[in-house]
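Problem: given the chain below (266 residues), write out its structure.
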Amino acid sequence: MVDEPAQPLRATDYAIATSKLCRSFGGFRAVDELDLRVDAGTLYGFLGRNGAGKSTTIKMLTGILAPSSGSISLLGASPGDENEAAEVRRRIGVVPEDLALFELLTGREYLDFVGTIYLLDEAVVRERVDELFEVLNVGGGEKQLVLEYSHGMRKKLALAAALIADPALLFLDEPFEGVDAVSSRVMRELLQRFVARGGTVFITSHVLDVVERLCTHVGIIDRGRLVYEAPLSELDGSTLESVFIDRVGDAAGMRTDLSWLREDSG
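Solution.
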């Protein structure tokens, strides 16, 4: 089957727009003709089972992976256009699935480095780093090597790096994984304020309760295809979990017990 050419996007209408976006690995198509439309100023939850194509989609949107076919627009520009790619990168922040942090730097040195990459003034970097460490409660971690950070602290440092240049669009792949309850609440409130002032957040998470409380819109991907997309206000009394299971298939017919844990096993 030959892929049809992607249709031009009305890019300025959306913070994120994709048309017939595909990514294949050998004979396996991980993302299959994905059409996303994410309005600016929304907190969009991108959901799916393990292996559904979520992280592959984020890697394409953020330029880590090249699409096999299809088109992408971010903030009205094309990250695949060499004349626009640098501006797109300047306006986005990313917390990736695999935290590629420089482990032999201290937390402060790492954020100083990120600020320099974004060409921020030294005084601005220093002020923002101070605020980020205070708000995200990294504590003495600013003087620790990243190598010594816990997984939760690494997540918070990655979020700090994503925010330091004041982006318009954030991509967050499982940002709450391993983060304690207090820090999780702070992060949620921080993201809500980010959106309230016009930013856009695209987030993946397996914790549906967090998504339901945090996000304004949700999309569900299954086997590389978008199977559901709507504002959360349209759930009409249904839970996000019930909508998710309805779209991706429930556990009917699947074995869910262990023989030695049955009540009659003795």
